[in-house]
Design goal:
The chain is an alpha/beta fold and about 280 residues long. The protein is about 30% helix and about 25% strand.
Amino acid sequence: MNLPDPSPICCPVCREPLALQDRMLRCANGHPFNVAKEGYINLLLSHQRKSRQPGDDPDMVQARRRFFDSGAYAALTDAVTQLPIIGKDAPSVLDCGCGEGHLLGALSEQRDGFFCGIDISKKAAQLASKRYKRAAWLVANGMRDIPMADASMDVIISVLAPRNNAEFSRILKAGGALVLGVPGKNHLIELRRQLQFSSGDFQDKADDAAAKCAPAFSEAQRQTVLDKVTLNREQIADLIQMTPIFWRSSDEAKAAVMQLDQLTVTVSFTLLTMIKPQA
């Protein structure tokens, strides 16, 4: 792991910068955090968790990894990695709620810069750090105090993840960009109908996300990502397992859907680029 100097990663106890020493991150006050064998760092303090295993469970994380690897969300990956706001001049990018690391990992493999992913799931950080070696991976609660320095990041990505807009504003540099990814109109509508779940669209999601960012951010761009994908039985099962919206579907409906050999679905996302004002 290569950290910029000064380090943008902060001690979750005292908020002093963490420096890498051998296989450990340590702050000026001596608080130590080991680098796991996979390469991630666990900065989640005991009072910041609500359960013994917070975040996505291992089965959900593995389903997400398989689904992204299958290419079903390739349109989303391409859109994120080609965002012009990220630029090519060694940016610093934080992915908050990074999951198993697919989006940030793809970015880190295509560009130079400092890339850091945060997720509350230890299993997600393990998978991310084992595959994507050009990024730093942290276990932390992105809805609490994020262990990153003030005005340390050029770009923050939050795709299909909870958002901590106050912390995002603190961490971003003046003029920095917050990229939000939310479900777009009719996202997975065919599958939701099969599951007898709400078949309404998500057309208000982007407006709601933008409104909640004001006045700390102003909207600079809104991009629609739209694709049609034919899923096989394995992809359908992984998508159902990895997507929280389907938890409320009945077991009978999910069992029936997972007997399908294939299903063509609408893949629809909206990417919002929000800019923090110049100081």
